[in-house]
């Protein structure tokens, strides 16, 4: 069963994200304290990725801010994430690398043409686009198999 947010918890996270955009110093301080408290709960990261990738009705700055907070959490605490949380984040990033919004795509990951992948099917090497969701979680080769002429997310591996 796929993770689903608690509606009350989701509304609290959304309010926190909106409050964090306030220019008021006291509000900013309160938001920072609340973020530190929430970071004690790995499930908080599920809410952040949910806002970033699934709440298309939210404004882009709020969705992007959710992703930026998540990136900071990943960089600081990824080794402490339970496997289910890490897997959920990876899956959501990969499923949403093609978001229509350039801001959201940039928040989720970057595309670089810097590595060589080897097709597992035909063993052909090629320089391909590499997508790095949240830039620290996982790299996926999105090359095209010469024999199958279809995107081969699972048919390529990195050549190191």
TrEMBL record:
It is found in: Cytoplasm. One of its GO terms (biological process) is protein import into nucleus. It comes from the Eukaryota. Keywords: Cytoplasm, Protein transport, Repeat, Transport. SMART domains: IBN_N. One of its GO terms (molecular function) is small GTPase binding. Residues 31-99 form the Importin N-terminal domain. GO terms for cellular component: cytoplasm. Transmembrane segments: none annotated. Pfam families: IBN_N. Signal peptide: none annotated. This is Importin N-terminal domain-containing protein. It comes from Hucho hucho (huchen). The lineage of its organism: Eukaryota, Metazoa, Chordata, Craniata, Vertebrata.
């Amino acid at each position: 069963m796929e993770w689903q947010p608690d509606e009350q918890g989701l509304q609290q996270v959304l309010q926190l994200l909106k409050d964090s955009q306030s220019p008021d110093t006291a509000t900013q301080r309160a938001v920072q304290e609340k973020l530190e408290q929430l970071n004690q709960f790995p499930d908080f990261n599920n809410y952040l990725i949910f806002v970033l990738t699934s709440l298309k009705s939210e404004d882009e700055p709020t969705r992007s801010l959710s992703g930026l907070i998540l990136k900071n959490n990943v960089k600081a605490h990824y080794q402490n994430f339970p496997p289910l949380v890490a897997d959920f984040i990876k899956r959501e990033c990969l499923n949403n690398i093609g978001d229509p919004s350039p801001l959201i795509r940039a928040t989720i990951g970057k595309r670089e043409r810097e590595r060589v992948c080897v097709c597992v099917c035909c063993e052909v090497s090629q320089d391909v686009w590499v997508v790095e969701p949240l830039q620290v979680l996982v790299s996926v080769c999105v090359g095209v198999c010469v024999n199958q002429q279809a995107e081969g997310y699972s048919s390529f591996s990195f050549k190191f």
